[in-house]
Amino acid sequence: MKAIRFDRTGGPEVLKLEDIELPPPEAGQVRVKHAAIGVNFIDTYHRSGLYPVTLPSGLGLEAAGTIEAVGDNVSDLKLGDRVGYCTGPIGAYAEANNVPADRVVKLPDAISDEVAAASMLKGMTAQYLLKRTFPVQPGQTIVFHSAAGGVGLIACQWAAYLGATVIGTVGSDDKIELAKRNGCAHVLNTRSEDWPKQVRALTGGEGVPVVYDSVGKETWDGSLDCLAVRGMLVSFGNSSGAVPAFEPAILSAKGSLYLTRPTLFHYTRTRDELQQTADDLFAVIESGAVKISINQRFGLADARAAHEALHSRTTTGATVLLP
Ligand SMILES: NC(=O)c1ccc[n+]([C@@H]2O[C@H](COP(=O)([O-])OP(=O)(O)OC[C@H]3O[C@@H](n4cnc5c(N)ncnc54)[C@H](OP(=O)(O)O)[C@@H]3O)[C@@H](O)[C@H]2O)c1
Predict the structure, then answer these.
(1) CATH assignment, 2-120+268-322
(2) Which of 57, 80, 131, 211 has its CA 20 to 30 A from that of 202?
(3) pTM for this entry
(4) Packing angle between helix 150-161 and helix 113-128, nearest 10 degrees?
(5) What CATH architecture is 138-261?
(6) Which pLDDT score, from 0 to 100, does residue 266 have?
(7) Distance between CA 194 and CA 238 in Å, rounded?
């Protein structure tokens, strides 16, 4: 089968389409034939070496499609079931992947393969951030960075649906309207240096109880500056680079702040957590409260171009690869 592989870390140019042999699924695994593959920013960290992988390696954690082979000791899944997965194993940028059966979720009829591949990793992240890391309450004003991105478009709609007033941020003015149509009451451009002051102005000087920050290095200082006393910085990504080392005393100086650095994998550790998180996501999609925007589609062979697009900061919503 065709798969995207890389044998050294680096820029998008290290990604190569190869012919590989996929072994039969082991006991406890199923083979998923992919109809659509999710492209996520974490894939760029694996490719660049920011998050280490064993080389040579495949890439990608998320895809949806049909079960075409079932290993021993799998009882609740059968050939032909439509499923999705988003916590690996790494190797989703391929025509198929062998996945532990307990990391696979059956797709409801209303959720197409493309929507599943575009929304499971990003939307389940939005779910745990907004409902479990810092549970957003109606009436709260929150900051969500990269509001027009993959996680951002889903999370801002969901936060508004939960009753929050969302201040979204974007890296260019041409994304402002899109963010406003997807849950943001206010949209600030982080390329303008005074965006933390604008957050203060929008909150009567108080600041916000929570900032969800996936930009990392570039927004770290500003995010601390716009939090209310005893507010929480949820640092969940590094799109602009890893956050540099800092003195914990900065958290007291800025208002006895809380900091957490969560990851989806720790919020979907058990089968029950994974299923409940997926069910909650599928329910808000089916109800129409959250719409999934797939704004970039590439062939599997063009994974390099998909990564170049993500790095350009010009993509909006979700990106999928079609095998
Ligand atoms: N911890 C977790 O559980 C978890 C799970 C999923 C995703 N994430 C993180 O959430 C973030 C969003 O993921 P995604 O897949 O939905 O990606 P995305 O938001 O669609 O794309 C990344 C966005 O980051 C912003 N950005 C800021 N500085 C950048 C830079 N120097 N280069 C490129 N982009 C830059 C850009 O938006 P603007 O220019 O508009 O700001 C860009 O569109 C990523 O940081 C990802 O690692 C974390």
Answers:
(1) 3.90.180.10
(2) 131
(3) 0.98
(4) 60
(5) 3-Layer(aba) Sandwich (3.40)
(6) 98
(7) 21
